[in-house]
Each structure stands twice: as C-alpha cells, then as structure tokens.
C-alpha cells in the first residue's frame, strides 16, 4: 500500500515537472528560440545565443542543390553529382542520398523562416516523440534568420516537389493502382502534406492490444524527414 502511494506521488511529481518544462519550451518557441535544434547544413549554430548564421562554404552547395532541382534534376541525380564533385556533408564525409537532398529542398530554414514544434513528447514516462499533427502548438516565424536562397526560388522548388509527389497509376491495361486493395480504404487515402498514398499499419498500444493506423508511404519508405507531418 505504501509503495503504491509513493509510486503515485512520484508519478505526479514527474508529470508536474514535465508540464512546467513543456510550458517553458512553449514560451521559448513563441519567442523564436531554436528548441531541440540539431544543426542544419548551410548554417552554423551558436549554442550561447541559440542563433544560426550562414556558413558561406556550405551555403554554396545549398544553392547548387536548388539550382539543379529547378533545372529538372531529381534528388538521386543531385546526390550522385555532389559525390562526384567531392562535396562534404555536415559530418565531413563525401556521402549524399536522395532523401537527404529532399529534406534540404523542403527545409523552410533556407528561405529564412523556421517552424518550431514539429514533434512533441507523448508523455513524461516513455519520452516517446511523435510528429505534431495538431496535438500541440506550432510556431512559424517568417524572416527568422538570414536566408540562403530567395523566397521565390524556394517556392518554385516546393511547387515542383508537390507536383512530383502526386501518386501515379501503373501503366497497365486496367485501372489497377500500384497499391493493393486489401482494406476498405486502400489506395483511397492520400497524405495531405506531400500527396503520397497512405498505407495501413498496426500499432501496438500495449502488450496485448493494438490498433490500425494509416501512415504516409513517403515517410514509411524514405524516412520521417521526407514527410515529418
């Protein structure tokens, strides 16, 4: 009985502390402070001031990527070209992949803006983080820092990306789509952010219960960075 009471009190204390921390983070994001920032190619992060400034050497590569994308090159082609040119990534290695290039094409920071609160912590015990789809506040700040590409160039790249992201039908004699119709809504649901199809998955709630969820195929196959929403 005593252990149960102590456990309950400890959990309440953790939840109270978590609530205070969350409130503090919300205030920081509202002020435009970078919370949970892990670095970004093209920018240098200053820990003492929580600000970023343009890294001109890396910025040239960012502009090259956008130029190639607007010229009609795909992310795989761009990644291959960067390797051929011997350009180093943020880790200092000559290694580039299509999903990484796509992540840069979609990154609002390159036009000087920043979206804060892209993910959130589900609870204070598990510390599990999920993509924020409206569960918590998000803060979009325009002209937050110096841009690397113009807003016009970024918007053109985004327009191209959204057009390319639209799911395509298989070239067959029938009207069969590339995804199966195993479930009622198969091939009928699309991601409202990137346009890819949604696939049905099973998520375990506990060790004995589970529930069906619909996930973006772009995020599932290419990584959450390709569709963080």
Structure report:
With 229 residues, this protein is an alpha+beta fold. It has six helices and eight strands; from the N terminus they run H-E-E-H-H-H-E-E-E-E-H-E-E-H. The chain has helices spanning 2-30, 56-70, 75-84, 98-106, 151-165, 217-222, and strands at residues 43-46, 51-54, 114-116, 119-121, 129-131, 139-141, 198-204, 210-216. The strands form four sheets. A two-stranded antiparallel sheet has the order 1-2. It has a two-stranded antiparallel sheet with strand order 3-6. Strands 4-5 form a two-stranded antiparallel sheet. A hairpin with a 5-residue loop joins strand 7 (198-204) and strand 8. Helix 3 packs across helix 4 (98-106). The longest helix is centred in the N-terminal third of the chain and has 29 residues, at 2-30. It is globular, with a radius of gyration of 21 Å.
Please specify the SSE layout and strand pairing.
Blueprint lengths: L1 H29 L12 E4 L4 E4 L1 H15 L4 H10 L13 H9 L7 E3 L2 E3 L7 E3 L7 E3 L9 H15 L32 E7 L5 E7 H6 L7
Antiparallel strand pairs: 1-2, 3-6, 4-5, 7-8
Helix pairs in contact: 3-4
Write down the Rg: 21 Å
C-alpha geometry: globular
Strand content: 5-15%
SSE sequence, one letter per element: HEEHHHEEEEHEEH
Spatially, the strands of the biggest sheet line up as 1-2
Please state the average pLDDT score.
79
Number of H/I helices:
6
Tell how many strands the DSSP assignment holds: 8
Largest sheet: 2 strands, antiparallel
**Helix share, percent:** 25-40%
Quote the distance from N terminus to C terminus.
44 Å
Quaternary arrangement of the chains shown?
A: single chain
What would you call the structural class? alpha+beta
The low-confidence runs, each spanning 5 or more residues with pLDDT under 50, are 168-181
